[in-house]
Amino acid sequence: MFGIAPIINIVILIGSIVIHEVAHGFAANKLGDPTAKLDGRLTLNPLKHLDPVGSLLIPGILVITGAPFLFGWAKPVPYNPYNLKNPRRDEALIAAAGPASNILIAIVAAILFRVFMPGLDTLFAFVLLMTVLLNLVLAIFNLVPIPPLDGSKLLFAAVPSSFGNFRATLEGMGFFLVILFIATPLSNFIAPLVFGIAEIFLGIRL
Questions:
Q1: Which of the residues are catalytic?
Q2: Count of CB atoms within 10 A of residue 85's CB?
Q3: How far apart are CA 111 and CA 98, in angstroms?
């Protein structure tokens, strides 16, 4: 549709990833842990957050290979659980803040799409559409309950603390598990789920 579409998609993705990480740090700071703030991570400056592999290499490869969905990640925002009043609960809230920020971005973009669509420039409509889709991908992908994704933090907060050894084992295999998930048919549910939710948000058929 647009020759610059891949660039637009990567810019939207990077911006959304940055907001995702800032949301984690903001939630941690509100819950009593200033680690991210002291580390200079409560900023929208992408240079503070970008991971060469997750923010640039992987998205670039996915664009070039025509993958069904685009995703990536930034450097995790640090937090110290010993600063939290209720570590199990607060860790889940910090984890949930990231996907919640992406869902909020998708909702705002969808509202703008619905309100201004009749008079929108086609390129602007494309930007809003991709903002919705990419943020839904980030939210849903990060809610998959495998380390180091945010969904794993929500899962561990829900299971008894006696599962500590099991958690440590899974976290030690985190990167391998994510790659395995992406490479298997299990990840195929993401694209139809994203498009289904996006159609509800946007009020159009995709």
A1: 21
A2: 9
A3: 20
Phi-psi region of 100 (alpha: psi -120 to 50; beta: other; left: phi over 0): alpha
Pick from 127, 168, 138, 26: nearest CA to 74: 138
Distance CA 151, CA 82 (A): 21
Across 181-200, average pLDDT = 85
pLDDT 10s digits, 55-108: 888 788 877 877 766 777 888 898 898 999 998 899 999 999 999 999 999 999
CA angle 200/22/15 to nearest 5° reads 60
Q: What percent of the chain has pLDDT over 90?
A: 50
**CA-wise closest residue to 26 among 12, 11, 13, 44:** 44
Alpha-helical (H) ranges within the chain are: 5-30, 35-38, 58-65, 87-116, 122-142, 150-158, 164-172, 174-183, 190-202
In 3D, which of 132, 14, 160, 28 has the Cα closest to residue 90? 28
Length of the chain: 206
Report the SS3 class of residue 144: coil
Q: Give the whole-angstrom CA distance, residue 62 versus residue 131.
A: 17
- From the list 46, 48, 36, the residue with the least C-alpha distance to 77 is 36
For 132-184, write each residue's pLDDT tens digit.
Answer: 999 999 999 999 998 889 999 898 888 877 666 777 787 777 778 877 887 77
